């Protein structure tokens, strides 16, 4: 993705391309992205998964990293997987709840 300046909105836009194959929804609307830190040409993302036993954890983390490295002006991308705070369906966006059929 081509952009002159990287900001949180740009990062979130590109991370919407990373889909959890089990839920059929992107990691942003699922509420899995906890924080983004941009420092020059490096982006650090702290994220979680819906469950610690998620069999797709490596693929999702690699998908996030690859999406970030696909941005122009990004040379480094680090993904930190955390379990606290624990993910909860209330963290999902309205679009995420619609896509997965979750009602809160």
Write a compact overview of the structure shown.
The chain has one domain (8-86): GMP Synthetase, Chain A, domain 3 (2-Layer Sandwich), CATH 3.30.300.130. 27% of the residues lie in helices and 22% in strands. It contains three helices and five strands.
Question: How is this fold's topology laid out?
Answer:
Elements: H1 8-15, E1 19-20, E2 25-26, E3 33-39, E4 42-47, H2 57-69, E5 76-81, H3 94-100
Parallel strand pairs: 4-5
Antiparallel strand pairs: 1-2, 3-4
Characteristics:
three-stranded mixed sheet, alpha+beta, 5 strands, 104 residues
Give a verbal description of the structure:
The longest helix has 13 residues, at 57-69. With 104 residues, the chain is an alpha+beta fold. It has three helices and five strands. Strand 3 and strand 4 (42-47) form a beta hairpin. It is 27% helix and 22% strand. The termini are far apart. The chain has a three-stranded mixed β-sheet with strand order 3-4-5, covered by helices on one side. The protein has a two-stranded antiparallel ribbon with strand order 1-2. The protein has helices at 8-15, 57-69, 94-100, and strands at 19-20, 25-26, 33-39, 42-47, 76-81. The protein has one domain (8-86): GMP Synthetase, Chain A, domain 3 (2-Layer Sandwich), CATH 3.30.300.130.
